[in-house]
Amino acid sequence: MSVERNTREIEGSVVTDFRDRMSYGGYLDLDTLLSAQRPLSDPEHHDELLFIVQHQTTELWLKLVLHELGAACRLLRADQLAPALKCIARVKHIQKTLTEQWSVLATLTPAEYAQFRGVLGNASGFQSAQYRAVEFTLGNKNAGMLRVFSSDAAAHALVEAALNAPSLYDEFLRLLARSGYPIPESVLERDVTTAWTYTPELVPVFTEVYRDPQTHWAAYETCEELVDLEDNFQLWRFRHLKTVERIIGLKAGTGGSSGVPFLQRALDLTFFPELYAVRTEL
After folding, report:
1. Are 130 and 66 in contact (CB under 8 A)?
2. Residue 263 pLDDT more than 90?
């Protein structure tokens, strides 16, 4: 079927009657999704929709990240490393999308943001329960963060569950121990509700893996996938910092933080420090 007058004919087999059929909008519940953008500025400021969509899409991607990381943890517990790595690979692609999204928000100028910033009140990305659950699942835990969600039972439950569960790194190290690697008992029995901290006893284990990748390929590949995760996360944090700096300078954040200085300190937080320390030993 050719195209004439720059018009493509609709094929006769294309379904057009959805009175008794599942439609695209129905499957995705678009009526609900597309009605969730409700700017509060009055009169409505043109750029507030950008700000809302940016953060709502971030939350949708974070929902998928949590879904994939949760599956990866379960698969590692079941010694199913290959499908766990598939989940991690998907997370890496999502991370790249999340990082690129900052370039869209960066089109918001300081003057434009100032015209509707007041309607946010104390709303801040710092209060994202899903973001915090992702951080906790990757091992950067902080029980003090639970206070932020004390007035939202569902959000509190989500973050608390991530706090109490072994992290992705915990599950990987336990898998290595079951596979015969000399993971210290202190690591296997550690309090998983606390933030992971650098454990020098693990560096010789990873040094052996990195010095002979062919013999230890499964462990080696997983280590590199985890390094990718951390690199991507740090790039996201950096783009967040620079976007905030570009839009509000050194003003305090809406949630009460110092803003850019507070975000700067997040760049010092780590997930898998031994996987970086091993590079010095090679």
Report:
1. yes
2. yes
The two tokens of residue 87 are: 């989940």
Mean pLDDT of 171-177: 98
- The pair of structure tokens assigned to 133 is 């659950």
> Residue 61 class from Cβ within 10 Å (0-12 exposed, 13-18 middle, 19+ buried)?
middle
Give the chain's end-to-end CA distance (angstroms, integer). 62
Q: What is the pLDDT of residue 1?
A: 59
Distance CA 172, CA 174 (A): 5
- What pLDDT band is residue 3 in, cutting at 50, 70 and 90? confident
Structure tokens that stand for 238 in this block: 């950096």
Gap between the Cα atoms of 204 and 136, Å rounded: 26
Enter the pTM of the model: 0.95
Closest CA to 230 of 101, 130, 88: 88
pLDDT at 2: 74
Cβ-contact 159, 145 below 8 angstroms: yes
**Exposure b/e, 76-103, CB count within 10 A at least 16 = b:** beeeebeebbebbebbeeebeebbebbe
Q: What is the length of the chain?
A: 282
